[in-house]
């Protein structure tokens, strides 16, 4: 543990981790979810498969449009 110049113990900052952690109202990723609730959210925020609805704000819509593709020019003419 940390000590100051006189040798006194300095308590650690922050909150201890463990089972008593506060989740701040966020959903537990591993908890079971209600299929009806998930379907309602899907209908609200998507238009078809993998298409966000018009009410969803997307920042940088054209960012990384070529992600995963080979973009190097291989023409050796």
Describe the structure.
The protein has one helix and no strands. The radius of gyration is 25 Å and the shape is flat. It starts with 34 loop residues before the first helix and ends in a 32-residue tail after the last helix. The longest helix is centred in the middle third of the chain and has 11 residues. The model has no long low-confidence stretch (mean pLDDT 77). The protein is low in regular secondary structure. Helix content is 14%, strand content 0%.
Give me a quick take on this structure.
With 77 residues, the protein is mostly loops. The chain has one helix at residues 35-45.
Q: Please give the number of β-strands.
A: 0
Q: What is the beta-strand fraction?
A: under 5%
C-alpha-based Rg, rounded: 25 Å
Mean pLDDT: 77
Helix content: 10-25%
In this structure, how is the largest beta sheet organized?
A: none
Low-confidence stretches: none
What is the rounded distance between the termini?
65 Å
Judged by helices, strands and strand pairing, the structural class is little secondary structure
The backbone outline, from C-alpha atoms, is: flat
- The ordered string of helix (H) and strand (E) elements is H
Task: Enumerate how many helices there are, as a single number.
Answer: 1
Explain the layout of strands and helices.
Elements: H1 35-45
Overview features:
77 residues; little secondary structure
């Amino acid at each position: 543990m940390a000590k100051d110049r006189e040798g006194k113990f300095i308590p650690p900052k922050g909150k201890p981790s463990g089972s008593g952690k506060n989740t701040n109202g966020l959903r537990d990723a591993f908890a079971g979810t209600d299929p009806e609730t998930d379907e309602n959210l899907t209908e609200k925020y998507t238009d078809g498969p993998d298409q966000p609805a018009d009410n969803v704000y997307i920042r940088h819509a054209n960012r990384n449009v070529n992600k995963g593709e080979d973009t190097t020019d291989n023409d050796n003419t």
